[in-house]
Amino acid sequence: MASEPTARVLTLSFQVEGQNFRASGEAAGRIKRALEQVGLDWSIIRRAAVVIYEAEMNIVIHARRGVLSAEITPDQVVIVADDEGPGIPDIALAMTEGYSTASAEVREMGFGAGMGLPNITKHSDEMRIETEVGKGTRVTAVIRVGACGDGSRAVSDCSQGSRG
Amino acid sequence: MTRYFHSVTLDHEKCRGCTNCIKRCPTEAIRVREGKARIFEERCIDCGECIRACPNHAKSALTDSLDRLCGFDFTVALPAPAFLGQFRRTSMPEKVLAALLTAGFDDVYEVAVAASVVSYAVRRYLMTRDFKKPLISSACPAIVRLIQVRFPALLNLVVPIDTPMEVAGVLAKREAVKKTGLDPARVGVFFISPCAAKVTAVKQPVGRDKSAIDGVFSMSQIYGLVVKKLKDAPSGLGLQRASSSGILWGRSGGENAEVGYGELLAVDGVHNVIAVLHEVEKGRLSDVDYLEAQACVGGCIGGPLVPENPFVARANIKAMAHMVADRPLPVAEAGMQALYDEGTLSMVKRIPPRPVMSLDEDVTMAMAKVELLEKTVESLPNLDCGSCGSPSCRALAEDIARGLAFETDCVFKLRERVRDLAAEMKELAEKVPPSMERPRATVEPDDDA
Question: H/E element holding A107?
Fold first, then answer.
């Protein structure tokens, strides 16, 4: 493995505005387009598309603002959604399918069904949540080329949050 | 030999190199080069948006010549359901079909008959509940090609059931062979098409090796002939067999109405379909069982090769379907089940992806190109004027990253360069050789005495 050239990293990051539903999904769309242009396998792009979108929507629905970024290498895609927002008091509860703290209005629009974090877990190979109540949340999801996804290897090593 | 057949073609004489088509193309398949539009054939899905957009009628669809009818001993016309929509709503469906027959065919078989059979098959498939949601209709060939090019990850959602056109081809030929005793090769079945995509679907099918259709004529091509015969067409030939639900496949929503099972969603217009497929990709429509998706606004009656205005056609087809409202399904349920069981309605081949988005075969190279693309986009004016011949600033940046264009192709960038050069020239012009310099009073080392 000595002579293998060090893989380059392509980093893309986008500002995401909280509560701006009209522009929601744009950052995710840009990142997905880049993944297509890089030419990663379609099964990876399919999984990544769900993860990126859910990560962006988490910021839009819950936070004031945030940054959605993707680190792309030939072997994996790392998605990071870093927001300034309320934080998550109980990660285990937030990871429960169907549990949501989204407002009634947001749900009316068809968002906030409590599937965001579970969907990210399901479609990524590794997922990490760092959160501080009252400050914000950083969700990191890794999708590996050649891995199976579909939650079978999704070890959610959530570093227990609420350090506040 | 080219890899792709395309019905959509360009008339170089008529093309004035404007930007109308490049802006409408849903796969960004057109660029203007040397004053003329150029189609990237690996990206073109034959949706016909450019045919509609071109003010100079430089874009057209390649169809078969009517001379092809001479190559067969017995010919059958297969009008798409949208065909009935091309005639005034006072026309009897039976008479329209009789007029089509007398225009030069030996028999008529409505594709709407096969549409009902396909609806049955889709319903049976939905009832198995054994599929990833949402299933996507395979009926519109432009949409199937759109998925191949722009959404390869969704190809496994396309329902593996053949199109009404192909099923009609198979059933019509069987019937004609039975009726005449001729060799199947001597029987020609001809689709009367509302669009270019169906022509391509016949010449270069996906989902099967060879099309069951022997030739394709456009509705516009045959319309004049039929209209002439309409007044004196007989009305007792019993040509009209399709039920109203099959006929209504000709307009958007008709397919879902006849499938009539599960959670259904219908979308028409290729740009609208793209938006909905993005939703599918995000996983937001996994509660939908079946997605009817058509490239033309209004459905097939909105096809680029139809003579009638799509909104008028919509009213026409509804009125005609109403006239045959009491007609039973043309193929009995047992017959449809038999066709389903024997596999006649199934697609035999997987639909392959046609990915064209990646900037380089080598992933690392492609990553560098994406980086260059993103940097280039920042430096462009992002007015999307199209003067460079690419549909948007982002597309130009992509073309630059692929090595197909230069930054100075942008008129604003070029002007910037010219202005900089002009400033530099002005500066140079003001410089004079020392021999000609005017004496400068202050620094003059006049007399050091």
Answer: helix A104-108
Q: Chain B: give the shortest CA distance to residue A163, in Å.
A: 32
**What's the burial of B127, exposed, middle or buried (CB within 10 Å: 0-12/13-18/19+)?**
exposed
pLDDT of residue B447: 56
Q: What is the mean pLDDT of residues B386-409?
A: 95
Of B44, B61, B78, the domain-final residue: B61
pLDDT in tens, A114-161: 788 989 999 999 999 999 999 999 999 999 987 654 444 333 333 333
Tell me which residue in A42, A72, A119 faces B353 most closely, judged by beta carbons. Answer: A42
Domain that holds residue A111: 10-156
B374 assigned to some structural domain: yes
Q: Is residue B448 part of a domain?
A: no
One domain for residues B231 and B91: yes
**Which strands make up the sheet holding A10-17, listed edge to edge?**
A10-17, A65-72, A76-84, A136-144, A126-132, A155-156
The token pair that represents B67 in the structure block: 């001379």
Angle between helices A42-62 and A116-123 (to 10 degrees): 160
Residues of A in contact with B369 (CB under 8 A): 37
The total number of structural domains that make up chain B:
3
3-class DSSP assignment, residue A126: strand
- Cis peptide bond prior to B433, omega within 30° of 0: no
Give the number of beta-carbon pairs within 8 Å between A and B: 70
Over 50: is that where the pLDDT of A164 sits?
no
- Look at residue A162 and tell me if it is in a domain: no
Range of the domain at B311: 66-341
Cα distance between residue A39 and residue A45, in whole Å: 9
Mark whether B108 and B134 lie in a shared domain.
yes
> Do the Cβ atoms of A7 and B364 come within 8 Å?
yes
